[in-house]
Design a protein that fits this description.
Blueprint (H helix, E strand, L loop, with lengths): L6 E5 L2 H4 L12 H4 L2 H4 L2 H6 L1 H16 L5 H12 L4 E5 L5 H5 L4 E3 L2 E8 L26 E5 L9 H10 L2 E5 L11 H7 L3 E6 L11 E4 L2 H15 L1
Parallel strand pairs: 1-2, 1-6, 2-3, 6-7, 7-8
Antiparallel strand pairs: 4-5
Helix pairs in contact: 6-10
């Protein structure tokens, strides 16, 4: 991979799996116990807000206990040392990229360490529970919800992502199943725009065939190895 200057990296739940955060597909994990339609849709929130708030309070508290792993650390090193443009677009709502030290991170599905006030549209930093309907620190209304993008809602910052894909020489997808759109379509957008494409995942994803190259194994092994290769080129 020569002549690479601008890199877009898409990450999914697989990059945080070895930190102990369940992916959708973890056997016996969270998503076997809760159906996405019961807890991760606007309709679910309207129907049973206590269930949805309790679910996200549980996840927010669990994520706080987790630590970045070698894959997050390697990506933070690449972010710090890569001389060209670089953007980490994550589908994860955890903050493990940032806690590893990465700065150029965009959370397209929202994040757990902010809440969203549906009364005044502010996004205050948040670390505690929401189940007791605390007042918004900005406007005082009891209208805070998790700042996460639910199924059926528009992902955040799509224009910035499209612009970065336009400029990308290399698109890398890490730890994502290729099942959730629009993120699953980025590889085809990137290809059409002329970028080289690489998949790093535990196993072939649903979109593996769209990548120029795919490497399979645990993120804690294959991501640091790839970052070493990239920094040797820099
Ligand atoms: P997913 O669960 O659908 O797929 C995870 C992928 O990671 C799978 O292809 C799996 O083979 C791979 N994987 C598992 N362990 C791995 C490892 N150790 N190393 C490398 N790859 C590994 O997750 P997704 O594609 O991110 O699904 C999309 C949705 O899941 C997103 O909307 C995201 O918001 C949500 N989600 C987020 C988190 C989180 O914040 N950490 C956790 C679960 C789900």
């Amino acid at each position: 991979m020569t002549n690479i200057r601008n890199i877009v990296i898409l990450t999914g739940a697989g990059v945080s799996a070895e930190s102990g955060i369940d992916t959708f597909r973890t056997a016996g994990g969270l998503w076997e116990r809760y159906k996405p339609e019961d807890v991760a849709t606007p309709e679910a929130f309207a129907r049973d807000p206590d269930l949805v708030l309790a679910f996200y309070d549980m996840r927010r508290a669990a994520i706080r206990e987790k630590q970045p792993n070698l894959a997050h650390e390697a990506l933070a090193r690449l972010d710090a040392e890569w001389p060209g443009e670089l953007l980490i677009v994550t589908q994860n709502v955890d903050d493990l990229h940032e806690r590893a030290g990465a700065r150029r991170v965009l959370h397209m599905h929202g994040q757990h360490h902010t809440a969203w006030c549906t009364a005044c549209d502010s996004r205050p930093a948040w670390s505690g529970p929401l189940i007791h309907r605390p007042p918004c620190p900005e406007c005082g209304e009891a209208a805070l919800r998790p700042d996460v993008v639910w199924f059926g809602e528009m992902p955040y910052r799509m224009e910035e992502i499209a612009a970065a894909l336009h400029e990308a020489d290399l698109f890398v997808s890490i730890g994502t199943s290729g099942a959730v759109y629009p993120a699953a379509g980025f590889v085809r957008n990137a290809r059409e725009l002329g970028a080289a494409t690489l998949e790093l995942n535990l196993e072939p994803s649903q979109g593996s065939r769209w990548f120029d190259e795919a490497r399979h194994g645990p993120a804690s092994e294959i991501v640091p190895a790839w970052v070493d290769e990239m920094l040797a080129l820099a």
